[in-house]
Design goal:
4% strand; mainly alpha; 2 domains; elongated; 383 residues; single chain; Rhomboid-like fold; 54% helix
């Protein structure tokens, strides 16, 4: 049983109680003083019987000094708590609203308890049906380009997703798709300068440091963990990654907000690059997983977003997004096709590292926890 709040008088308590019971919510009221006395004398059978009398027969507590309250409002069934809190809030704001004029004597829950229980069962089924429908709708949304997430969305704009796509297109074109061209004068071209500054390691520094993949990062250029995601090898590589960034990223940014999405993309890209560069080129490591700093593309972040959305519904039972099964299969097919070398020249370490980072972040309960719906300024207490 959950206490929803208190009301100043028994008349107010009975009025709200009547409304709740008319909505098939199993609610009860009792005086605050009596409740405190009962809490301190739980072993007293007389007090216990008085509690049952007060709760089950609120009409008995309608006169004398008790009418001045305050009175507790209780709800028996957890499934009705949110609706009862909403009604309590509305009642405090407008107690004279006509919708609350429901006499207790006219309630079907008093004259026909069986009907009331049936109505409560119907309401629970309807709530479950609505929740399931929303989840199915959210899953279907992932098959659409606009991917609306309805009333659960924090925002409708996707500035970070759009920014990633624009920057990726500009940087891929400005580096000739990671193949910067030299000029006849032998001076460094703009394409070469951009590629040198944004690839994971400066090639000249890499050679001078004896093949140290982290040579540029050790100099403090930590942005290189992220900037390779904006570089791509060809038009197909760019289009494919940007489609997935839009496909998965839009729904996350709408649902969680731009700041969260930016952090998620950064962390998963960092995880992907760290594993891709850190994997040893040893005989016991499959050739397809040998580490290399000379990789480009956003696929590490893509697999990170995929991993987050894959595991999140397991952590949060009310999470409104469920990936379409065919998309899950497709992502894993692409992952293993690269690892098993059916598809050559793939940064499999980045894919695997991004996926692991996304799964870990999605499995952290408080990371990306959706904000609860706006609550009243009135405090609600519960047991």
């Amino acid at each position: 049983m959950r206490r929803i709040g208190t009301l100043d008088t028994s008349d107010q308590a009975r009025k709200l109680l009547g409304y709740l019971q008319s909505e098939s919510i199993d609610a009860m009221i009792d005086p605050v003083d009596d409740s405190l006395n009962r809490d301190s004398n739980q072993g007293d059978s007389k007090d216990g019987s008085q509690k049952n009398s007060a709760l089950q027969n609120p009409g008995l507590q309608n006169s004398g000094p008790q009418n001045s309250g305050p009175w507790n409002l209780w709800v028996r069934d957890e499934v009705d708590v949110d609706e009862a809190k909403s009604a309590y809030k509305d009642f405090l704001e407008s107690p004279e609203s006509p919708k609350f004029d429901v006499p207790l004597a006219d309630l079907p829950s008093r004259s026909n308890p069986g009907l009331a229980r049936a109505r409560q069962a119907d309401r629970r089924q309807e709530k479950d049906r609505v929740k399931s429908a929303r989840r199915r709708a959210a899953s279907r949304d992932l098959n659409q380009l606009d991917m609306p997430v309805g009333d659960v969305a924090r925002q409708q704009s996707i500035p970070v997703v759009i920014g990633i796509i624009i920057i990726s297109v500009v940087m891929s074109l400005s580096t000739n798709f990671s193949k910067p061209r030299a000029n006849r004068l032998g001076t460094e071209t703009l394409e070469q300068k951009i590629y040198r500054a944004t690839s994971f390691v400066d090639r000249d520094l890499y050679r001078s440091e004896g093949g140290d993949s982290f040579a540029s990062v050790r100099k403090g250029e930590v942005w290189r963990f992220v900037t390779p995601m904006f570089l791509h090898g060809d038009e197909f590589h760019l289009a494919f990654n940007m489609l997935w960034i839009f496909f998965l990223g839009s729904v996350i940014e709408k649902l969680h907000g731009s700041l969260f999405f930016a952090v998620l993309v950064t962390l998963t890209q960092l995880g992907g690059m760290a594993l891709q560069v850190g994997l040893p080129a040893e005989d016991w490591v499959p050739q397809s997983l040998h580490g290399s700093p000379f990789v480009v593309g956003a696929s590490g972040a893509v697999y990170g977003l995929f991993g987050f959305l894959l595991v999140r519904p397991w952590v949060d039972g009310d999470y409104p997004i469920n990936l379409v099964p065919i998309n899950v299969v497709l992502m894993f097919v692409m992952l293993f096709a690269g690892i098993l070398e059916f598809v050559p020249n793939v940064a499999n370490g980045a894919h695997l590292g991004g996926l692991i980072a996304g799964l870990v972040l999605g499995a952290i309960p408080f990371f990306g926890k959706l904000a609860a719906s706006k609550r009243s300024s009135h405090s609600f207490s519960g047991d």
